[in-house]
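Please, why this fold?
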Amino acid sequence: MPLPFLLCIVLLCLASGSVQARTVYRCVQGNTVSMATAPEPGSRCTPKEIDDSAVQAPNLWGNMGVFSGTLYEREQDGRLVYSTRNLPGSTVYLKFTVATPPGEPAHEGLGRVGAAQLAPHARQFKAAAKATGVDDAWLRAIAHAESNFDEAAVSPKGAQGVMQLMPETARDYGVVDPLSAAQSIDGGARHMRALLRRYNGDRVLAAAAYNAGIGAVTRYKGVPPYAETLAYVDKVMALYARYREAMGIRTEVPAR
């Protein structure tokens, strides 16, 4: 079993929750990421409810390559909790090595994983990020994966423009000309904002829904097991890391 999933399963076994689902927290402090069975003091923690019957536990780390770490045990609020961050009062519970997705699989979409491109439609991305609050680097990663920034791109399935909006999605967001870079980026950013809100900021699920649709994510209770969608999510996460680095934003790394 891939180790990111194995570690997640260990955390699930230690986490409290109903018989059907348990909660693991993805906690961010500065640019460091940890997994925990309870919110960590001093960190920004996002709960991730995972169905006990899931065929495959999700990778909650992101795209961080291969790294080794430690799962710690400590007492918090009168009960034992577990975290991969070494907080005061912690003792070592187990050591682990995680191989997170490399993010380089081929994808049938129009974009290809490559170097970050900051020049295409820079003004439009900046405006859309300011208007919607969606990370500029994240919008660029989506556009890169979808169209390689080509405003005239049309996919075999009918998606159009820089953000490869399907006709019904374009209509939902008032995009009159889907081949207009400004309209496509604005509509795509508003669609992504809605997805991020729907999934409580979970970029993996938002990317999966952008690719496969909300219905598929709901049906599979997570990332759909479609080869194209799995490859797409890995690609977008890899590109997001590259755009953050190119824009001078500190890349997230595992907590120690």
